[in-house]
Design brief:
alpha+beta, 4 strands, four-stranded antiparallel β-sheet, Outer membrane efflux proteins (OEP)
Length: about 425
């Protein structure tokens, strides 16, 4: 019996020494800060930074700007040509000199259809910028929410670890005083180290998610980044499904791009038809003819040159443009179907997520915290063991993490509604 007591005493000393070493190593590590409710960035800030720094969107803006310049260029008249020629008699002074200019008349509405086509192409490029901004804003908001949820889980583990550390110090003092068995200290030490290990995993998850968020918003991986904000737990009121669907059909950039491409196909049909019509070039010039020193003539030269249309009057080009328009109509019809489904699914997802969050917050986590208080009091009175109390603590932490997951799902569902309906809350500038 004495031998067993000595072994337990040695083991307790070893565990106490290991505990001191762990505590010392933990104290020397500087833990990163992920949440800062004063200087951190919000989801709106992240979207604003992402849109300003994204090279793909900046490239699309440059393409849209270039297409607007091409509209102005398309409105210019066709270039005139100036020609100078002459004839000189081999023997003698007789000669003929001519200078004349030629201007294409662009009959059949060629210039108008050229300008219209350039305008339609510019509209497509401009709407492509809005489409890319909306898609990026949705991705940033979702990644921000996921990172915020991981940061809250990390903070939850940190709070739990601090509580366990304080309890462990109290247990140590009671063991020294002989009021508590060393076994309880060892059991609590195991739980303490388990939570320490869990904190390391939670911390790495937040760091990885922050790196991905930095990439989305265009920050250097080494640049510091903290988050600010929380998940709004109040219910959001949205218009009816029919109103949201109508707004989405009228304003979603991806659908507007398809409509603009359909208009572009119409313009290409007109341009192909105009190019198949008769065209002409007018000529005006001056000619000087010298026969002898006394016989000289001055002429005004004018004329018109006709460019005859193709035999089929560009029928193949027109048919190709018509087929392209039919393809755009099919894409637009499918896009409208996708928009209707997106709005309906987003509303169903949000309603379910909010109800789940409300039940978890009030009927699960709230009740579990009350149960934990009862178990703690019973443990302090000696009715329950430490293992039962630790198990209940662990269960409450897991339920709090599930509540964070429910809040995140509600937040993501709200962002999906913003994206599906092209809500003004999605993109911030």
């Amino acid at each position: 019996m004495i031998h067993v007591i000595r072994i337990l005493f040695v083991l307790s000393l070893l565990i106490a020494g290991a505990t001191c070493l762990i505590a010392q190593s933990t104290a020397t590590v500087t833990r990163p800060q992920f949440l800062d409710q004063v200087n951190g960035i919000t989801a709106d800030d992240a979207v604003r930074m992402a849109i300003a720094n994204n090279d793909q969107i900046n490239a699309l803006r440059k393409e849209a700007e270039a297409s607007e310049r091409l509209v102005a260029q398309a409105g210019q008249r066709a270039r005139m040509s100036v020609e100078a020629s002459g004839q000189q008699r081999t023997f003698g002074s007789a000669h003929r000199y001519t200078i004349q200019g030629t201007m294409p008349l662009e009959l059949g509405g060629r210039r108008r259809t050229r300008v219209l086509t350039a305008q339609r192409e510019a509209e497509v490029k401009l709407l492509a910028v809005a489409q890319a901004e909306n898609a990026l804003a949705a991705r940033v908001r979702m990644k921000f929410g996921e990172t915020l949820a991981l940061a809250y889980k990390h903070e939850l583990v940190e709070d739990f670890l601090r509580s366990l550390s304080e309890s462990f110090r109290l247990i140590q003092a009671r063991v020294v005083e002989g009021k508590t068995a060393p076994l309880e200290e060892n059991m609590l030490l195991v739980e303490l180290n388990r939570v320490r290990a869990k904190r390391e995993v939670a911390e790495s998850n937040v760091l990885i998610s922050l790196l991905e968020l930095r990439t989305l918003i265009g920050l250097d991986p080494a640049e510091s980044l903290t988050l600010r904000g929380d998940f709004d737990q109040s219910p959001s009121t949205f218009d009816s499904a029919s109103v949201l669907t109508a707004r989405a059909l009228d304003s979603r950039p991806d659908l507007l791009v398809l409509k603009a491409m359909e208009d572009l196909a119409d313009a290409e049909i007109e341009m192909a038809a105009s190019n198949g019509k008769l065209d002409a070039m007018a000529t005006l010039g001056y000619q000087r003819l010298k026969m002898t020193e006394t016989v000289q003539f001055n002429y005004v030269v004018f004329g018109i040159r006709f460019l005859l249309p193709y035999k089929n009057r560009s029928r193949d080009a027109i048919e190709a443009a018509v087929i392209s328009k039919e393809a755009m109509e099919k894409r637009r019809a499918f896009g409208e179907l996708v928009v209707r489904q997106d709005v309906a699914k987003a509303l169903v997802r949000y309603d379910s997520a909010f109800r789940s969050m409300s039940i978890t917050r009030a009927g699960v986590v709230g009740q579990a915290e009350q149960n934990l208080d009862v178990v703690r009091q019973m443990y302090e009175l000696g009715s329950n063991s430490l293992l039962e109390y630790l198990a209940e603590q662990r269960r409450v932490i897991e339920l709090r993490e599930s509540l964070i997951d429910s809040e995140l799902e509600t937040y993501l569902a709200k962002v999906e509604i913003y994206r599906a309906t092209n809500a003004p809350e999605l993109v911030t500038r």
